[in-house]
Amino acid sequence: MLTGNQLPDTHIFEITYSGALTAGEFEALRDQLEAFLDANDPADLLAVYGDIDLGGIEPKALWEDLRSAGLEKKVRRAALLTDQGWLRTLAKTARHFIHADVEVFGTAERAEALAWLQR
What we know:
The protein has 119 residues and is α/β, with parallel strands linked by helices. It has one domain (2-118): Transcription Regulator spoIIAA, CATH 3.30.750. Helices cover 37% and strands 33% of the residues.
């Protein structure tokens, strides 16, 4: 499942990933995220990663995700909440290739991630 929404009274868009992911979910999320980024400056992201079913990701979903390339240029900061080692490593590597400041937090550190985004 893939969902997204703006946190009330903030410039933060929260994305939650878990389980299997469909192309339709990525497409809907991209549309929501584009509208949010167009309406908010600065714009920050909070990405919450649950247990992702890698075998349950539709191949077309990966294409839809790639079509979102470039949106990160409008993001000031991105906080990732995950306890999965491979995602932590991927996020730390991504810091070198994108404009946004990226920090990785454990899933129990939501308050710290939100405080970092709001500073």
